[in-house]
Design goal:
Two copies of one chain form a homodimer. By secondary structure, chain A is α/β, with parallel strands linked by helices. In chain A, 29% of the residues lie in helices and 27% in strands. Chain A contains twelve helices and 20 strands. In chain A, strands 3, 7, 8, 9, 10, 19 and 20 form a seven-stranded mixed sheet that branches. In chain A, strands 13-12-11-14-16-18 form a six-stranded parallel sheet, sandwiched between helices. In chain A, a hairpin with a 6-residue loop joins strand 4 and strand 5. In chain A, helix 4 (160-174) crosses helix 5 (188-200) and helix 7 (233-244) crosses helix 8. The longest helix of chain A has 15 residues, at 160-174. Chains A and B meet through helix 1, helix 8, strand 17 and strand 18 of A and helix 1, helix 8, strand 17 and strand 18 of B. Strand 18 (309-313) of chain A pairs antiparallel with strand 18 (309-313) of chain B, so a sheet runs across the interface.
Chain lengths: 384, 384
């Protein structure tokens, strides 16, 4: 496509929380930006709906109670927000916010700089928000040029999941642990982490919620898979942790007892080797980082793991800032080199921007079901 | 008292967990040790019952269901242990364990070294376990010689509470916080922390559980006191945290919702100053360390505080190891210098070793009621 064929405007998904206590999703028509010297305009052809996007998309709204008015690109989805959740929304009230952390597409317009011009016509992966847009203007340096022969779909998830999985392994090494526990392990991210750990020879305990997820991971070569729906779950988890020596966990679920059960199983595994009693429990530090919130209910922790423990939040961007640009670049280079193997993502369905506003579709991607990731193609089914 | 007057043996309190699932408290008669060159024998005259001692004393036994057989120094207290709590007792099964972290008394026998000889007849404070004993042999270097005119009672709690309170302030500084939240703040430890913070000009939010505890702390000069039994508790806590800028809390309670409420109030206080919405909450790290377990029920955390948070265990001895001997010594010197002021402890009752085994007494000290600390005088009411 030549630069001349770029339309004057394009659609962009917006999420807004009103003072009256409603969430609104709609499509705005925004002018296609004119790139500055160091910038490029990307025609976005693939952008995943990650759990981290769903938080901004829906906020705390009751998606099951959503109604749709209007049609096609003029549809507006309205969903009520429980009153007790409104105080936390104060910072985004009445702002029409674009959504979509990452995506990929073709550079259709470029600024005058050599770096920008070199990207014209290339397929690039990008991170930077507002990816559920037909056209997105970014700095050339924000774009990862994909190897020739790589489709936008293949590069759409080149940042969030790959860097999160690598960040977990990096955190493990920096904080002195030697093996990992991971929950919601059948997710795209979990499968990726499994491939990294098998390649790098790192012990990994995969926790899943269904027998079929356990079977899937075992087929892929996972050694330690524990199904939390099994009656013997805690004993099985303790055995797997004892076999790997894991003292660090990453939990995508957040609510309920699981994070505490992981700490308890770590302590029990350590105590199998204990030679003397300590009233304060083992002195080995056991840590679980909560990086997602698939279950928004309260976290409940039965403290049966002594005093050397930690629970905390973990987020990709602060982590990348903490390790600094050189180490972050090292992680990004590994992703680029292994994009079609270690870091390949799979999608349940590809949808257009207009389909994002259709009830059966937003109810499906809003369920956050493990293994059912949606891919948005903002330039599918729209004139542009 | 001359060395010659020291009896050949003395009583020592013991705690034992039997394989059959019972806790036993009794008094053993142990030979008075002969000190090596660098050692001294201390006649213990005052040893507090700290919450950290009660864990070892009673374990998970049901104190309310305890029975006593025998009389006086031959009494044996037996209390049942719930079956589900027995696995955690594996490391101490059938071991007769002495108890009592710290205490003070008079050096009645000394080894041949100059350091040991110099302590003969002096009142010393000691840390090292087995303090619910009439006579305790220790290395001279473990003893803190108290200034002339200081009674054993005044030096009995010179380690655990003072170093814990100073450790909290030290942790605050090392981890980049500038003010503190403390729960169970009407405890001896809490009052001590209040005196340190007033002296050092550190903002402190005191959380108590009863109006009379709030009144007591206000009388002592506390500025921010929040009563968790108040209907407006969360709002009051948020105001106090906003006024001090506290982003670090120390929690003695452990169970229930309080630790999570502190994190939530910190986030709400920070967001009062926020200028833009972040879907991940504020980027300011909020931390609560759990250092006690006054409530052994599960910790329940409503995650309304974004992703920059941590919860974890905190223990004095690993902390002192982490900061190293020079800094630990600096803390100990401050305690010695301010023992009768900043670090003064108060006791509800003084009891003998024999009284420790009497039902009305062990039920009282086993209640762990804030502000009702017991002091054991192992040489009271016994021939010796």
């Amino acid at each position: 496509m030549s630069a001349g064929a770029v339309p004057a405007d394009g659609l962009q998904l917006r999420s807004r929380v009103t003072r009256a206590g409603a969430l609104e999703l709609s499509l705005a028509r925004v002018p296609t930006p004119e790139p500055a010297a160091e910038e490029v305009v990307v025609r976005i052809e693939a952008a995943p709906i990650n759990p981290s996007d769903i938080g901004l998309l829906f906020g705390p709204a009751d998606v099951g109670a959503a109604r749709v008015s209007g049609e096609g690109a003029d549809a507006i989805v309205t969903a009520p927000i429980p009153e007790k959740a409104m105080p936390a929304m104060a910072g985004r009230l009445d702002q029409s916010m674009p959504v979509g952390n990452e995506g990929a597409g073709v550079v259709v317009r470029a600024g005058s700089s050599a770096a920008a011009q070199a990207m014209l016509g290339r397929t690039v992966a990008v991170l930077g928000g507002a990816m559920y847009s037909q056209f997105r203007c970014l700095k050339a340096e924000q774009c990862l040029v994909l190897p020739e022969g790589t489709a936008a779909r293949e590069g759409a998830s080149a940042f969030v999941n790959p860097l999160t999985a690598l960040g977990m392994v990096e955190t493990m090494r920096r904080e002195g642990h030697t093996a990992l526990v991971h929950t919601a392990a059948a997710s795209n991210l979990g499968q990726m982490l499994g491939r990294i750990c098998r390649t790098d020879g790192i012990g990994l305990v995969n926790i899943v919620r269904k027998p079929e997820q356990a079977a899937l991971l075992r087929e892929q070569g996972a050694t330690h898979v524990c199904d939390s729906s099994s009656p013997g779950f805690v004993a099985e988890l303790t055995d797997a942790i004892a076999a790997t020596g894991a003292t660090l966990g990453f939990d995508a679920i957040g609510g309920g007892r699981l994070a505490g059960q992981i700490l308890g199983a770590m302590e029990a595994a350590i105590n199998r080797k204990a030679t003397e009693y300590s009233r304060y429990g083992s002195s080995v530090h056991k840590q679980v980082y909560v990086y997602g919130s698939l279950d928004p209910s309260p976290l409940e922790v039965v403290r049966n793991f002594g005093m050397a423990w930690g629970l905390g939040g973990w987020l990709l961007f602060p982590f990348l800032q903490k390790i600094g640009p050189a180490d972050a670049q090292r992680l990004r280079e590994r992703v680029a080199a292994e994009l079609k193997t270690t870091f390949a993502s799979h999608y349940a369905r590809e949808i257009s921007l207009v389909e994002m506003l259709e009830p059966e579709t937003f109810r499906a991607y809003g369920r956050r079901a493990t293994g059912e990731k949606f891919l948005v193609n903002p330039n599918r089914g729209v004139a542009g």
